[in-house]
Batch of 2 targets.
Target 1
Amino acid sequence: MQRVFSGIQPSGIPTLGNYLGAIRNWVPMQDESECLFCVVDLHAITQRQDPKELLSNTREMAATLLACGLDLNKCTLFVQSHVPAHAQLGWVFNCIARMGWLNRMTQFKDKAGKNREEVSTGLFVYPNLMAADILVYHANVVPVGDDQKQHLELANDIAQKFNHDYGVDFFPNIQPMIQGVAARVMSLRDGTKKMSKSDPSDQSRINLTDDADLIADKIKRAKTDPDVLPDNLAALEGRPEARNLVGILAAVTGTTPEAVLAEHAGKGFGAFKPVLTEALVSHLTPIRAEMQRLLTDPGALDAELRRGAEKADAIAEPILKKTYEIVGFLARR
Ligand code: TYM
């Protein structure tokens, strides 16, 4: 059976982008594969996090994942810092990956901006830890949004170089799984930028915690253009904001952008936006309610996460031990 791994950073409140690009696709995989899903707090601190907020965001993220349909009887859900093997294998990979490879990472360039001297070294080696997250379970399928593709290619380079350098066939090849019309949901303020939980503007995204009024307000103010919707996708070329809203409606209603255009061609955004708002509110309201219910009992949630970490640990530990043996570390016992 294939083993699936994916992670999400508790660096803010989960957005519609996280949901449509990743979380929603994780849910059906639980029925077909052995699945591990992880709230990656070690990754979150590569950029400054307020400790209290990190703690509450970690619980909130776990509650969101459950509210979106992860089922603890079918998958393993845990917090990255609870399983030390991630950081331990991450160190080994720091010694495998090459500076040149990391220098090419577009996400590092975007996040570091012009101020390279000031960003944490953790941000630079972030993809090595991400490779460790996956490979410490010998996971071979990784469902993610489009923005993670380059990191997964690097993870494969690391696995191959490790195997080659040590003359082993130990780490498997990873298959990225990038699905659907919403693999890249864009900002509501700028259709050329990814919707992100760390964007300073709350108006740029729909958070899964937003209530109906807030969703309506954000969609109403979302950037658009004065033209009507065309009857075919090619005609949306050069209209990134319009393309994005059409894609969101298609993803939320389980149809295609082509079908959305067939239904709404000739309408302006004044008519289209209320339809989109309605679809988002009816889709997200039950998720928000379930998330709030789960957060009323943080003790129970923490206990589930501890159980998840134990299950994850039991898979990761022998793989880490074998890695150490391959590298030539003296066995502890
Ligand atoms: P993160 O926390 O930024 O995002 C979590 C998941 O959501 C997807 N995503 C999006 N998809 C579509 N449109 C968007 N606007 C959008 N924004 C985010 C991401 O592609 C991701 O799948 N590095 C990862 C976390 C990670 C990880 C891993 C993932 C750490 N280790 C191992 C897979 C495997 C990240 O920052 O995701």
Target 2
Amino acid sequence: GMATGNKLRHVESLQEMPSGAGKISCLNAVILGEALASEENDLVFPSDDFARQAHVSSPQQYLEMYKRSVEDPAGFWSDIASEFYWKQKWDQPVCSENFDFRKGNISIQWFKGGLTNICYNCLDRNIESGNADKIAIYWEGNDLGVEDSLTYAQLLDRVCQLANYLKAIGVKKGDAVVIYLPMLMELPIAMLACARIGAVHSVVFAGFSSESLAQRILDCKPKVVITCNAVKRGAKAIHLKDIVDAALVDSAKNGISDFVPKYPPTCEVEWVDAEDPLFLLYTSGSTGKPKGVLHTTGGYMVYTATTFKYAFDYKPSDIYWCTADCGWITGHSYVTYGPLLNGASVVVFEGAPTYPDAGRCWDIVDKFKVTIFYTAPTLYVTRYSRKSLRVLGSVGEPINPSAWRWFFNVVGNSRCPISDTWWQTETGGFMITPLPGAWPLKPGSATFPFFGVQPVIVDEKGVEIEGECSGYLCVKSSWPGAFRTLYGDHERYETTYFKPFAGYYFTGDGCSRSNGQKIADGLHPCFRDKDGYHWLTGRVDDVINVSGHRIGTAEVESALVSHPKCAEAAVVGVEHEVKGQGIYAFITLVEGEPYSEELRKSLILTVRKQIGAFAAPDKIHWAPGLPKTRSGKIMRRILRKIASRQLDELGDTSTLAEPHVVEQLIELADR
Ligand code: 6R9
């Protein structure tokens, strides 16, 4: 099994690696010398057996590959891209980018001029190479005993039928298609069908309310909305079709098709440019309405496939299960595209991990003999053998060292390396992640950058900091999976991501490199330690992460203030035992309105209705006033402290316009 402690297996003294882009400071460190090993006992080493069979089995091997990936990105990525099918190879430089707004518009292109199709590469290509009868999808329904599966050949048939139907009703290359489905096999099928005909899918998580769905429909103006009648989640039935009908009324659309008839099971592929859009996925930002993150075809294809293969050490004999819903980026990149591009067998689970009881996940692992299990740290469980597992993955939020150890010791039986994958909707695929087998892990650290990724930590002024430090996490050059724009708003793309720190992509996360503890005031929530390991601990902006669902506090606030009795609302995230973060809302009512339990419920209901149940506030804190600066800015730092009851850490409140509101808030904390 894996061993923890002072072992020096696989640890070599490596020289600092020079690179075209200057020193790769984050790498100095895979170099774990004697001093480190004797002082640390928090290193978790891969077993010899695991390392021996791994794609990347030593720090040196990683460093060699990494060095090439950043010094010669074109060569590195075009070698990998050549393993895919291209109707026509790219005729322009493999990559071109401008990351510096001072030099003109931000632009990123990979494999431009190349013609390909990601659906063809997922299905036809794998079928031609002998995998026609391999299971592509094992589907496990919400209710026990309800299951299904599709081989690669069967999946292709189903995709083609739907693709033909979409074509028949007028969907053409470049048209948007909204998909509002639970985790049925039809969800990946619908994504692939769109990709096959060059349509741009926009999956809307089926937990979103009709109003949220309508907002997205109005923004991307799809030709079609694909949905189903109803779904059961746990013991509850949700009538999706009614929600869609309501949304279509809101967004003034006509003509609704109630069923998808059977169409022929073959369908010509629409060859698209590598830079043609593949999908839009709406995600929350710190302000304003949700952003339509746009991913294109070629780079995304190459990147999701490669990250999947290396970060999970994927082998053709693996059975892979990712618990994410296709309504989020994790479901796009690591339920559908990444695994299928690799010809993997993927478990797709419709239900809730706790239904009918908390053992459900482990039943599924045992039933399908899952070998790679990828989930969010908030999923908790016990019992069952789980002998089949060999690699574990974690995503969505920082996993704290004790949760990490539990996942490692209990779920993985101290045998399975954990890939704690840090990435975002915007990045398309993993950015900072272990390559299991290549280096020792540290519980709670996402470790090192993936090939081609150059993370940097900058200070408030945007100056890069070397060595042990903390600051804002940025990336200094493009990678194939990067998003290319925000749909219909390139200016917002530049302003949000490229202007905060000139010359870099700003992630919205903090990062630090010092060993162990968080930097005090939460402004620098990620660090990189002296060994170069990266530690991410959260967002530096007003985005919160509830059970892996990304939510902008501004969206929840605007739902709350739409309530006729709410004058003002301020929402912050607080630590939550089960969900990672909980939603904590400070509410100022309109003049003269008394606090009541009924009003509390009706405020929460407003959020459920406008966004979805997953965004419902966990706590409503009545606030006669909110702490504001003299210029009228809400001091969220103070609200966060009040929400987490760190009342002795309120800091300087003298700059507040009305300092007494803080005392009022403390008094009302438990009302
Ligand atoms: C993939 C996904 C992105 C935000 C990101 C960060 C947080 C994701 C993490 C993590 C620490 C990890 N995040 N993975 N934080 N460690 N392994 O979750 O995308 O929904 O866009 O959220 O999630 O704060 O900025 P998305």
